[in-house]
Design goal:
280 residues, alpha+beta, Rossmann fold, D-amino Acid Aminotransferase, Chain A, domain 1, Dna Ligase, domain 1, 3 domains, 5-stranded antiparallel sheet, 4-stranded parallel sheet, 9 helices
Length: 280
Amino acid sequence: MRFALVTCERPIERDHDLDFVVPALRRKGVDVETPGWSDPSVDWSSFDLAMISSTWDYFERQDEFRAWLKSTARATNLINPLGMIEWNFDKRYLLELEAAGVPTIPTVWIEPGGEAEAASEIAGFGWEQVVIKPVIDLGARNLVRVPAELVEEMLGRYDVATMAQPYLPSVAAEGELSVVHLGGELSHSLRKLPARGDFRVQPQYGGTHEAEDFGKVVREICEGAIAVAPGDPVYARVDVVGTESGPAVIELELIEPALYLDTDPRSGERLADALLAARN
């Protein structure tokens, strides 16, 4: 068998998950390659399976990436499946989680031209600090934190649909909890911590992570979030943060999430087994 673990041509950082899943697949007799999704020389039909691993520039080339997804899904077994990726593409999937009873962060959704109305709504909530980001983004690349009185001005700088949430001091103090499911089962969990003085937990901003087990409440919240997705993901990462009313989902990552396979020595084998099962 021949698998593609799909990357990008100019990655923002190294895809560390490849260090674990590639050897695991090769031990199982799979020929593994790591092509960039936008490389025109790649014949995707020559692969038995294509897993989206680190296509970290897709949000900058959305139309091109969507077209690639559709053509690749016709050519080979795309993992996660096309419909699931399309559903997870826009963060408004959080509305479906909320409707299903999954705890989420209060959010104001803004279309271009709706800045004044959104600022008024946010003022009514009494949020002192507000986090704003596009509904299609990656790695907090276009995320900002502003005082409530500057929300309207900041929203006016975006020309795309955005979302606004209250700034949660717990993220700076305690980080985010991440629970990773592989092959439909809980694989491992971890805490992602921001650098001192920051609240972004991503590695490019100095964030770190460490393995940590969580209790029943967090696990059930994560299971509930994954259950809302259209189908059964081969891999999923759920990010949870602390709020005044308890743990809440901030992201359900089904496209190209870092799976932090380094936090559990068995996770590479689990992902390899999940991919082989998906191929079969």
